[in-house]
Write a structure and sequence with these properties.
Elements lengths: L7 H6 L5 E3 L8 H10 L3 E4 L5 H14 L4 E6 L8 H17 L18 H10 L3 E5 L5 H9 L3 E6 L2 H9 L4 E5 L5 E2 L14 H11 L4 E4 L5 H9 L4 E4 L1 H4 L8 H9 L5 E4 L7 E4 L2 H6 L17 H6 L1 H4 L16 H20 L2
Parallel strand pairs: 1-9, 2-3, 3-4, 4-5, 5-6, 6-8, 8-9
Antiparallel strand pairs: 7-11, 10-11
Helix pairs in contact: 2-3, 2-15, 3-5, 5-6, 9-15
């Protein structure tokens, strides 16, 4: 086998390799997006932590270095109503850590900034005209979604269950990201909030493939070529990799996080809501062990992170999120473009080996 058997994503996005670099807010840089897109994959720029000006500048940097397709990623959460009682209870839960580190538990803090897709972000899409726009936590309201499509973008979004995949297809998604439980970072769930019933990649992908007509992008626990081969065998048309790209020099990863990634084992990540108020997979650290990993006290997304900021500044390895999927130990340190090409070549070799009698 010298080429990809399923070319639907390649033709849909106008790319050469069915590899999507996950849009990892905080870790992805314009340089990573450039490298992956130039290599033939789909580079993805996360925008949820950016202002319009910051995103515009990042896109300008990318467009100056590559004319290949790119993906802009946005969150679709609803902004929570203020809940002073819950925030007070959360601060009280964290107060022993403050006192231990010599901090004032009642000191003011800056609220967490994760903006949902809105009129301003929609204007950004219309101005910049990315080839692909991806959404996490569902989809924006129909009028905004219609404007994104009118701007010429292909729309994709994450599903963590078959029901979510059907919901996304019914609302016009051009492809579905089937996000297995193994994936690092925030879960993409939006119709269910029950983490106990979330589905693994191996079980989720073929069921989503059978349930929808649009192409499926497999995500979660795919870090090397064996995972890519397996995803295609399950019916996926492409894969999305995040943790694999955290090992690249283009990734913006803090030293304590990089150190943890270098030594993490398969059973050392967990789903937690203590960092943002929404379930996400990361490397287990002190605050996850002693407060969570899933705490009913954590304020709604994204408010839980504000009171943690002072603790993070003092002891980041104990109190900062270190997002990672379950297959981090398979990661390899090499430039993002080289990694993209190598994964693709190794996957094609894997297909060829399976096809030999």
């Amino acid at each position: 086998m010298s080429s990809w058997s399923d070319r639907r994503i390649l033709e849909l996005f106008g790319i050469d390799l069915p590899i999507v670099q996950a849009p990892m807010a905080g870790a992805t840089t314009p340089e990573m997006v450039i490298a992956v897109s130039e290599a033939g994959g789909l580079g993805s720029l996360p925008c949820a932590l950016s202002t319009i000006d910051q995103a515009t500048q990042a896109i300008a940097t990318i467009r100056a270095k590559t004319s290949r397709p790119i993906n802009l990623n946005f969150f679709c959460h609803s902004l929570p109503e203020p809940d002073p009682a819950r925030m007070t209870a959360w601060r009280e839960k964290l107060s022993p850590f403050y006192l231990e580190l010599g901090l004032d538990p009642q000191a003011p803090f800056t609220a967490s900034n994760r903006a949902p897709f809105d009129e301003a972000f929609c204007g950004l899409v219309e101005a910049q005209k990315p080839e692909v726009v991806s959404f996490h936590f569902g989809l924006p309201p129909e009028p905004l979604l219609a404007r994104v499509k009118a701007a010429g973008a292909k729309v994709i979004a994450s599903a963590t269950t078959v029901a979510e995949a059907r919901w996304l297809e019914a609302r016009g998604c051009n492809a579905i990201i089937a996000m297995g439980f193994e994936a690092g970072g925030h879960r993409g769930n939006f119709l269910t909030h029950d983490m106990a019933s979330q589905v693994g990649t191996m079980a989720l992908v073929p069921q989503v493939v059978d349930a929808v007509k649009v192409p499926v992008i497999a995500a979660g626990g795919i870090t090397d070529a064996r995972g890519i081969v397996a995803a295609f065998a399950l019916g996926a048309s492409a894969v999305q990799l995040g943790t694999a790209y955290l090992f690249c020099p283009e990734a913006q990863v803090k030293p304590f996080h990089r150190e943890a990634l270098d030594h993490v084992h398969d059973d050392e990540t967990a789903i937690t809501n203590v960092f943002t108020g929404r379930p996400a997979r990361g490397i287990v650290n002190r605050v996850m062990r002693e407060v969570g990993p899933l705490s009913a006290l954590a304020p709604s997304f994204p408010l839980a992170g504000g009171p943690l900021a002072s603790l993070v500044a003092k002891a980041p390895a104990d109190f900062a999120n270190m997002w990672s999927g379950q297959a981090a130990s398979l990661g390899r340190k090499m430039p993002a473009g080289e990694l993209t090409r190598k994964l693709a070549q190794e996957a094609l070799e894997g297909f060829a080996a399976l096809a030999r009698p």
